[in-house]
Design brief:
Serine Threonine Protein Phosphatase 5, Tetratricopeptide repeat; globular
Length: 220
């Protein structure tokens, strides 16, 4: 249920339910070295990351990775997902060298495990594109996000809205003339169209994109 609420953009409800699950596991002395326990920790860490509570997210994620390394082969996707999220966190806290290492490794691992056109690979490309924006690698960001949008739209996946939102962010970040503002506007509008298709009108996802469109109009 916690994951479902997170996917719908209700992060507070997701956090509360996932914390409740961890507390129940601990109360009932559920085995900590299990995929269920490690997976719940990972979902809680992702939720904290999305709430921008990076310190908490990092600590919980490292605990999850420690468990997975005891019960999974080194190249298992469960470990790969945690490495990806750890890379995202390092990017957000501006530790760019570590973030680049982890995120690029994640992309390579996902391509090998799932294939270059798989939904999961598309999601990684979104995260890598976001990092490249933060690191001002605009060419890498554009290539990653356009590839992500192609994969995710082809599979009618909700995360396609995020590719276009990030492309809008990219063109704003480049801080060049009117042409980039128009490109940003086009991508934000496409993102909003897709977000409304997959999420409720009052979701965090929709409101965030609407806010970016409003800011763009105010500053035009």
């Amino acid at each position: 249920m916690g994951v479902a609420y997170r996917e719908q953009g209700d992060l507070t409800k997701a956090k509360d339910l996932l914390e409740q699950a961890i507390n129940l596991y601990n109360k009932e002395k559920y085995p900590k070295y299990s995929s269920v326990y490690a997976g719940t920790l990972a979902h809680l860490a992702i939720t904290y990351r999305m709430m921008e509570k990076y310190g908490k997210a990092k600590n919980i994620l490292e605990e999850s990775i420690k468990i997975y390394k005891q019960i999974r082969p080194e190249n298992h996707p469960d470990i790969g997902r945690n490495v990806l999220n750890l890379g995202i966190i390092y990017g957000e806290i501006k530790e760019n060298i570590k973030a680049k290492e982890l995120l690029e490794k994640s992309l390579n691992d996902y391509e090998n495990n799932y294939g270059k056109s798989h939904i999961e690979t598309g999601k990684v490309l979104n995260h890598l594109g976001r990092f490249y924006i933060l690191a001002k690698n605009y060419k890498g960001a554009e290539e990653s996000l356009k590839r992500a949008s192609g994969i995710l739209q082809q599979n009618s996946h909700p995360e396609s809205y995020r590719s276009f939102e990030l492309l809008g962010d990219l063109y704003i970040s480049k801080k060049q003339p009117l042409l980039n503002k128009e490109a940003a506007r086009t991508n934000y509008n496409k993102s909003l169209e897709l977000a409304l298709k997959y999420f409720s009108e009052n979701s965090v996802n929709v409101n965030r994109v609407k806010g970016k469109i409003n800011n763009l109009e105010i500053n035009s």
